[in-house]
Amino acid sequence: MKTPLVADLNSEQSITSFFLVHEKEIRNTREGKAYLRLELGDRSGTIEARMWDQFESAAKDISRDDLVKVQARVEIYRNRPQLSLQQVRLAKPEEVDLADFLPQTKADVGKLYAQLVEYAGSIGNPWLKKLVTGIISDPGIAARYKRAPAAKVMHHAYLGGLLEHVISLCGLAKQIAAHYPELDVDLLLTAAMLHDVGKLEELCFERAIGYTVEGQLLGHIVMELETVSKAIDAIEGFPSNLKTVVQHLLISHHGQYEFGSPKLPMIREALAFHYLDDLDSKLAAARAALAVDTGEPEWSAYSGALGRKFLRLDQFLKTPALAPTDRK
Amino acid sequence: MKTPLVADLNSEQSITSFFLVHEKEIRNTREGKAYLRLELGDRSGTIEARMWDQFESAAKDISRDDLVKVQARVEIYRNRPQLSLQQVRLAKPEEVDLADFLPQTKADVGKLYAQLVEYAGSIGNPWLKKLVTGIISDPGIAARYKRAPAAKVMHHAYLGGLLEHVISLCGLAKQIAAHYPELDVDLLLTAAMLHDVGKLEELCFERAIGYTVEGQLLGHIVMELETVSKAIDAIEGFPSNLKTVVQHLLISHHGQYEFGSPKLPMIREALAFHYLDDLDSKLAAARAALAVDTGEPEWSAYSGALGRKFLRLDQFLKTPALAPTDRK
Amino acid sequence: MKTPLVADLNSEQSITSFFLVHEKEIRNTREGKAYLRLELGDRSGTIEARMWDQFESAAKDISRDDLVKVQARVEIYRNRPQLSLQQVRLAKPEEVDLADFLPQTKADVGKLYAQLVEYAGSIGNPWLKKLVTGIISDPGIAARYKRAPAAKVMHHAYLGGLLEHVISLCGLAKQIAAHYPELDVDLLLTAAMLHDVGKLEELCFERAIGYTVEGQLLGHIVMELETVSKAIDAIEGFPSNLKTVVQHLLISHHGQYEFGSPKLPMIREALAFHYLDDLDSKLAAARAALAVDTGEPEWSAYSGALGRKFLRLDQFLKTPALAPTDRK
Amino acid sequence: MKTPLVADLNSEQSITSFFLVHEKEIRNTREGKAYLRLELGDRSGTIEARMWDQFESAAKDISRDDLVKVQARVEIYRNRPQLSLQQVRLAKPEEVDLADFLPQTKADVGKLYAQLVEYAGSIGNPWLKKLVTGIISDPGIAARYKRAPAAKVMHHAYLGGLLEHVISLCGLAKQIAAHYPELDVDLLLTAAMLHDVGKLEELCFERAIGYTVEGQLLGHIVMELETVSKAIDAIEGFPSNLKTVVQHLLISHHGQYEFGSPKLPMIREALAFHYLDDLDSKLAAARAALAVDTGEPEWSAYSGALGRKFLRLDQFLKTPALAPTDRK
Amino acid sequence: MKTPLVADLNSEQSITSFFLVHEKEIRNTREGKAYLRLELGDRSGTIEARMWDQFESAAKDISRDDLVKVQARVEIYRNRPQLSLQQVRLAKPEEVDLADFLPQTKADVGKLYAQLVEYAGSIGNPWLKKLVTGIISDPGIAARYKRAPAAKVMHHAYLGGLLEHVISLCGLAKQIAAHYPELDVDLLLTAAMLHDVGKLEELCFERAIGYTVEGQLLGHIVMELETVSKAIDAIEGFPSNLKTVVQHLLISHHGQYEFGSPKLPMIREALAFHYLDDLDSKLAAARAALAVDTGEPEWSAYSGALGRKFLRLDQFLKTPALAPTDRK
Amino acid sequence: MKTPLVADLNSEQSITSFFLVHEKEIRNTREGKAYLRLELGDRSGTIEARMWDQFESAAKDISRDDLVKVQARVEIYRNRPQLSLQQVRLAKPEEVDLADFLPQTKADVGKLYAQLVEYAGSIGNPWLKKLVTGIISDPGIAARYKRAPAAKVMHHAYLGGLLEHVISLCGLAKQIAAHYPELDVDLLLTAAMLHDVGKLEELCFERAIGYTVEGQLLGHIVMELETVSKAIDAIEGFPSNLKTVVQHLLISHHGQYEFGSPKLPMIREALAFHYLDDLDSKLAAARAALAVDTGEPEWSAYSGALGRKFLRLDQFLKTPALAPTDRK
What we know:
6 copies of one chain form a homohexamer. Chain A is of the alpha+beta class. Helices cover 42% and strands 17% of the residues of chain A. Chain A has helices spanning 56-61, 109-121, 126-136, 139-147, 161-179, 185-194, 199-202, 213-233, 240-251, 268-291, 313-318, 324-327; strands spanning 14-28, 34-42, 45-51, 67-77, 80-90, 203-204, 210-211. In chain A, the strands form 2 sheets. Chain A has a 5-stranded mixed barrel with strand order 1-2-3-5-4. Chain A has a two-stranded antiparallel sheet with strand order 6-7. In chain A, helix 3 (126-136) packs parallel to helix 6 and helix 5 (161-179) packs antiparallel against helix 6 (185-194).
């Protein structure tokens, strides 16, 4: 792991470290002197940086989203910490570990993707099988599918998180369909594999997890609707009503208008899938909150996604209960 | 106008009249005797009808959404009025006037459509002009555009209502763009002409205004998104970011998540268009409520769309004010 | 099945049938003449009944919630249908089938209960096993558990419905715990078997499904909290913190304050159980809405519990799609 | 423009500049030594200031809302920047430009006011014309009308902002009335010119934009209701029902209860005016958010009034779209 | 009491009785024959009436809100009961008792008003005492104050109800001020006596309780604000800030924006008064719901104002509890 | 009073003072060197503290919630103030005054408790009297009842606050029952004395006011329900329906589902008690906000519990009103 991380910087310290360039601009002081202003970051946070002299060649080489090596001093300016840069250059690929800049799944992405292909192959309905297989094996999509996080902050917010979430949902889909004979497993699997495919374009996650402009303006539901509809239209003979059903599964999966679903689930598979998706996301959010070391032995970090803390159950259950007399 | 209308039927009356078939089924009495059950209607309402004898050939000829001529007796059964049918046959086209079965705009649809074409022609941006012109002059779309209502019940709920609403919005768009130089008139006009194009498929309005199954499952925003996106993709060279902007205008026009917009307006034209659309719809709803003769001299009918009654302003202003002494 | 049902009564008909007494009172006409007024019902609805002469001995014998045999005439009074009673007497047990008066599960209740006992036996944690087994095998509770509906109207609203719902949840609990290793299956099973035990006292379901006064004032969450807490206190050595966890599972299972949960789930098992409970209830509500023959081939009855209709998917998927030309 | 502005202060700098006194008090240190504490500000922000020695005469001369000239040193105390004052005295009127202390419209206020008078003169209804003309030409009101902002933070939050907003609304009113023949232009103009007249007293804006105590307790709707009602009562013969209508226009212009309108619009002019007012305010808020240089090339500053950022459309449309291969 | 009341009408009955005219119009049958249509009512309900022949002189004499004597036959038309009028004439004052047409308080209005005057006299602050005394002793106001209901349906919805409500609030005000020394009793009493004075004009209650047009458009808060402000302005020297406080008490008494208060209480007396007003209104609504004989021994009628039924506590507490064995 | 308080610490100061230990842990620097980290506090706030050398024996002696004496230096680390500890040891009881660490009522707790006993003794209903007396005189409960705050932050958030709140409610209960003869004073008093008894276990307030884990998971309503139900069950012959009524009073006292009441008040005493409880809590919150010296002469501190500031009425009323000419 690189040192120091942004979160570890102390005032009046001289450092040599690697950072990701979030923003770059040339600015002028009030007196008209030009300088280079960067926003630098790593997985622990971001900091402003300024370079006052001989920044021209650095400025030419470096762009947003590049990884750079810097030599700098930590200072305070207008009451905020900043780096005063002495040297800065592009990092060499072998010098840096992307994991220092973006969190990543601990699972084996190759294996997860193989499972995805297997689930797609298990779909019985030929139209749906062709649709799902076609989409996930499109080379451009596959590459991003293996890498995408499931969200920016809410749940599975790390590289590979989307695939983890989808594989978990496919497993749930199989179980639920076995439990409720009235549910069609093919529709549930289709929903699981396609419901977040729009996130491949809604989010950008090359160097940092964020939203694309299109993602902000349209959102993943609308984006995947277009991707999936086009894929359907390219399959000759795909039944028109089945297309409507697939589209409905996508647009209703948030379950409520206020969560951005323009339609409520009106098919049982859509209703059930909404619950599975919500359950898996919320459990992942709880898992993340519990993974933070808070210093509080019995409570997790506060989860913004869930609006509460979670109890560390094992800890609580092994706490010896107070004798009643201690309580009163 | 046909007589009698459903709303005018009296108990124990014998009638000959024309109706639209809303539902048709063969049922069995508890004793196992088959009979024909129809749901018949006209613009004033609906009534159940039963035919007990010799209904076989009628049942074969007649389908849902047909117009029929009936001879019947008005009776009461299980406390609800019904028609006991003596004869029923398909109406001949020349015997009926569709206006008896569905309310219609009083405006000249041909003229409105010509105005629509003119507005489309006035768009300066060549890509948007090509897009809008292409869609509204598609023969299948044009025919439905001239006929569609703007809604089932909320506003402009009559044949031709959609076109009336859109033409009004185009006029407003021109005015608003003149008033606020920061607004792009081409985007406003595009929004006006395309924002409800999905209603052509969300609603069915051949014989009665209702929702199609696809309309229920997807809604007009999602349906027009597909129509418009395809039309864009068919125009070679259409700028990709402009496509995103057009899509955003469509999906944000309801203005709030809880009204089924999966995104809030994030472009000024989208914000302004949302207000214009809402204003025109709500004024139309007020107009409709005021058009009902309620017997109350000073108040309109209750508007479900608006959740209130409206004051008949002219009436109120000419009421001589009570002298203060009368009031106290 | 008894005939006629209330829903089948026609005006000016003379009938002989069996009904459940919902209300009984002696009233006086304006002229001071006493008469007997009953509210009678069966599984299809209710109707008012009046007996004008020689009702004294009948009035003495009959009480609310009795089943009676009547001879009567169907009349209209003050614009509402009523029965004018000629004779009325207590029905003999062998004359009536309770199923005519209350809907019932089609499952074999004995088998379901055996499964419940088996699930309880599968709990590994000795304290929880002792708690759950003790409660469900209490003779008074077991008898009611086999008979109780899960709700008055929302879902599983028929005799045996509660047991069906619980068995389904136990199956889901096993699956989910296998899927998420972080979840404790014993807590999930405990929640499944005890979370609605308060409904045994919140609802009354001897002759009709309704609420007890205690049920109205306290609700099943509070009622079962007392039942379960007492059962825990009766087990010597039950760990105090485990008691808190069980209580939390009960009071948080509605998942939101506005659904009457005084606490949000703060343990992962509580969160997951809330989703399972909601999923099973809502799917049951959808199933019930789809079971109603609505005359609409593609849509279920409107489900008040869900605020929407459901699509009959099989029907819709086999409808031949309209050719595009038919649509435009 | 004065230098430096508060926003430009750097640590350990010695300055001479002009500020507005927001607060003034004499305090004691823990050791009992008295000192002068001021809150100083200009259009860019505020800063605390302390004067430790020989502050007595300064303290006597200076009051809240005075403009002062100071000589001081910028320091950090308990982790917050502050000014350590060496000298402070009242500024002479000729030394300061009020524009340095409060933001101002770029429009020509005299011209705007002339337009206002012209719009009032264009009202056809003699009662309304007399009412509006009388109010806006009252010398006390006119002076404040020319200077008032339209809000403290939400929109048009600068001197002259109210007049800008009103003139924009008058223009919209004319257009809308031309578009919808059912709307009375006189009522719309009256609403435009009087609907925020209460802000002249709700806000104080001599030296800083804030709320008066009366403004906090009553709000501009209630305050203008009194101003306008009194003006009406002073016009002999003003029709009583027309008074009610004008009052209704004022109290319903926020459109919803939760925005402080005690009545929903029940007259079409009130409904339409509410939309115009909301549109003009929200577009102004978007304009303000877009005017902030955020460093993000494609997004405006976050607008608290609108709860979102806005897209810089021109910027986005000229961005060359990524080739699909870059995206995947 | 007059007989029969509307609620007691039976089909095919001939009656002679007195009614209040709610609506009157001349209509034409489809064949063009004119007839008189009235809406008649008494305290128990309303019924439609038609007069087919020789109605001309009656139609000329009779107006809305008149009391009439009719001879008529009770019939059913289009499934709704109606009166077929044979004769109708204005009732003579001595023939009718207004109490048959509008519900009335059981308290002695003269005594209540005397208490009101006494409470006003007990105010210590001379300005408030002068204000309140002046308003309640204005002859026009006093006459209406003695007669007004407190609401159309929510609570105290009978003649004299407002006075009952106000006297109760004055008593509470005295107690609360004694309990909390920080509260000013004079302000609480002023609020109690003036907070609903706008209802004298918001409601009309000569012959039936309803809303005036002004009441609908402005509401009682706005109406009393004008009445009270004028009364204050007529008192020379009334302190300006005290006027603001009184106005704030009036406009904040509904406590929440969504109940039509344009400001939240920001003075402790305003906060406390809001609770007292709400408490007294809600207890009155509960009292009214419990006063209805529902046939259910343990539950009140459903209170629309409260959204629930109330328990008949005395009844419930004397019910012998079921033995536990009966319950299980 | 101890000096200095946390709120008075200045950078680079050496201090000797007493603090409460909120957290204690041994941590390692990046280089692997162990150090002691404490979170220390008093009634004015909290601060982090680190001890780098010879902390072992201190670390062994000291636990969370201990009071300690420290010698330390105030420093800034990573931009936050901290204490660098030179010495730390357990404080001797005689060295510290608990009042320095937790805010306390100014009332005489002994007297308040005597009043509580007296109110309990005044209950007429023998069952309720026995119940309430039994609970409040249980030695374990009594000790905590005298010490408990009524909340962590919302109202009466200081030691003894709960008792103050309850005594105030008992007084209100007596008054309200005298005012409304329909209300049973015994039920109101019972509600007052028992409705927050769960707070004795929901909150911990030995050294700081916080929530117990049980309090977080169950809440005071559920906790007191168990306490009170057990107390009832221990009274032989306590009427079963009266138990239900008492339980209903407890669980409905928050008045709304969203405030954590699983049932709405359905008994008049429960409705009235909810208003009294809310009134007393909100007035206490207003009192607390007004007690803060804000520097603003006319406004209180912002009250989070109430979502607003309060007017300092006395201050405002004595402000000389501006002459109208100053305003315009």
